[in-house]
Amino acid sequence: MSALELGQSHRRPTSGPTFVYIILAALLLGGGYLVVPRFEWHAPRVMMTPDTDAIGLGSIDITASDRGTGLKSITASLLVGSAQHSLAAEQFDQPLMEKKLTFSLSSKSVSLKEGPAVLRLSARDRSWWRFFRGNETVIEKNVVIDITPPKLELIADDAYINFGGSGLVVFRTSEDMIRSGVKIGKYFFPGYKGQLKDPNISIVFFAHPYDVSEDEKAILVATDKAGNTRQMALPYTLKNVTYKKSSIAVSDEFIQSKVAPLLNDVAARQGSPKEIFIAVNRGLRKDNEDKITNLSQKTRGKILWSGTFSQLSNSKVEANFADARTYLYQGESIDSAYHLGFDLSVTKRYPVEAANSGVVVFVGDLGIYGNTVILDHGLGLATLYAHLSSMDVKEGESVKQRQIIGRTGETGLAIGDHLHFATLLHGVPVLPKEWWDSKWIKDNIQPKLDPSIEANAEPVRPAAQITRGKRR
To answer: Based on the domain organization, do 127 and 200 belong to the same domain?
Structure first.
């Protein structure tokens, strides 16, 4: 070792300061990772449903959402002159990404007078932006306070309705009406304007459905854009209609040959015969009927038919509407269902005619109904033709009365070649034979569609005269 080396002090580089810097940098980065998002600047979104310029007794929903730190509060208020009236307010202890509040003047500020006002909606998030006050969205909308229900005048009604049958009501409402119809049980049949000369006159085809008690009252309803509603009981006598009850035995051969092939789920086909039958008769049937209802509600806003509907020529009714069927397997009752149409038989592969003019809304396989055609006749009225062996029309095609649309068959759950024919009002099956009856059409339908109906309108009977028939 040299003298120079002996006389020189030996220093090693220290890592202390560098390590501290690394720690500080990590803390800063970590803190920034955690803290910076708290300063996000994206304001919440606020949406009102319905988006109306009139506030009344109807419910209004406020939906607020946030894509950052979450919601902290939502408020709704009305500014009338210099006064502010709270309609809804909620603070959230924990951040929410979305929240819906519902309010109406029926529960808040019922003392408010009708007239102009400003609806103020606000939503604030939990951000630390704006000196920890957070981001706020404020919407102010000029509205009119309206708590007066629309006018509702019954012009023409039905004195009698068959149990499971149809009716037609004509009524006049005020100009601010946006929705009307007949409500009975779980069903609603919408009304339609523009069918007669007076733009404030509406008509509605409705039913007293086969599965609604005779104690249920049909209610005529009209709602304006402020959500105010006026109701009126329909004064008709419910006529007693007797429906058949029957028991049908199902065999293993029938289940394997007709029922099981309708299941698309291979695993479901591996169940017991009883399980297979219930899966089709209960599950698949409901899916099929839901689809029929949806298709029937996509209806044209005008009448497409004319005169009496036609029964399949030379046909014989083999099974009636609303027959209550109980299914027996090996002597045990395993399920039940209503037969919601007429089974019409002639000869094999008999040409099927359109019952009246309309537009084809469905052509194809429909589970238990097999090959099916559905025609829309306007204003919620539709006819269904099922178990076809062939179909000769296309969706969207206009057809005339008595035009051939297919041929009878035994597809779906059909036993033997026949046509299953059904008449529907907004998806609700109704008595087909009424629409085949020229006298019923002449007495109950055509007079109410006369443009001079206002001059010929009969006096409306008071509610005290409403009577009900006996249970079927």
So the answer is: no
